[in-house]
Design a protein that fits this description.
CATH topology of the largest domain: Arc Repressor Mutant, subunit A
CATH superfamily of the largest domain: Winged helix-like DNA-binding domain superfamily/Winged helix DNA-binding domain
Number of helices: 7
Structural class: mainly alpha
Order of helices and strands: HHHHHHH
CATH architecture of the largest domain: Orthogonal Bundle
Mean pLDDT: 81
Number of strands: 0
CATH class of the largest domain: Mainly Alpha
Largest sheet: none
Number of domains: 2
Strand content: under 5%
Shape: elongated
Distance between the termini: 60 Å
Oligomer: single chain
Length: 160
C-alpha cells in the first residue's frame, strides 16, 4: 500500500520526467497518453526501488539474526581478564563500563544512577572505553594488538 506522500512523490517524479522529455512529443494529441506512460514508468520505478530497499533490509536483518553471541564460558574468560584492568580506571569509568558493557544495562540507567543526562552518559562511556583500550594496551602489550585471550599477560615493559 502506498501512502499519500509516496503517491505525491511518484507524481512529482512523473512531472519532472515529463518536463525533461517534453520535447520528444511529436503529436500534441497524444500528450495525455504519453504522460500516462511516463506516470506508469514512474510507478514501476518506485516499486522497483522499494523492492530493492526491502531486499537490502531483509539481508541486513538476516545478518543481524545470524550474529553469534559469545558463549557463557568465553564471556566469563574475557570478563576475568578485563575486570582487573577495569579496576585500574577512574571510578566513574568503572561504573560506566560495568553497568553498560558488562551487565548490558541501558545507557539511561547509567545517566539516572550518576544523575547526568543521557548525552553526558554516552560521552562518559565513550571516554571510559577509550581509557580501557589504552590500559589494555599497557597491561596486555602484544596480546592487545593481536587479540589473544590469555589472561597470563604481564604488563608491557615499553613506556605508554
Amino acid at each position: 500500500m502506498t501512502s499519500p506522500a509516496d503517491a505525491e512523490d511518484i507524481l512529482q517524479s512523473a512531472f519532472a520526467r515529463s518536463l525533461e522529455k517534453g520535447d520528444s512529443i511529436r503529436n500534441e494529441e497524444s500528450v495525455i497518453a504519453w504522460f500516462y506512460r511516463v506516470l506508469r514508468n514512474a510507478i514501476i520505478d518506485y516499486y522497483r526501488r522499494r523492492s530493492a530497499n526491502n531486499r537490502k533490509l531483509e539481508q541486513w536483518a538476516a545478518e543481524f539474526r545470524e550474529e553469534v553471541q559469545p558463549s557463557h564460558e568465553m564471556r566469563q574468560q574475557v570478563c576475568q581478564c578485563i575486570l582487573p584492568v577495569v579496576e585500574t580506571l577512574k571510578p566513574e569509568y568503572q561504573t560506566a563500563l560495568k553497568l553498560v558493557d558488562i551487565e548490558e544495562r541501558p545507557l539511561r540507567e547509567l545517566a539516572t544512577l550518576d544523575d547526568i543526562s543521557e548525552n553526558n552518559a554516552s560521552v562518559r562511556l565513550h571516554r571510559a572505553r577509550r581509557a580501557l583500550r589504552k590500559q589494555v594496551q599497557v597491561t596486555c602489550g602484544m596480546c592487545a594488538t593481536h587479540g589473544c585471550v590469555d589472561c597470563d599477560c604481564r604488563p608491557d615493559p615499553s613506556p605508554a
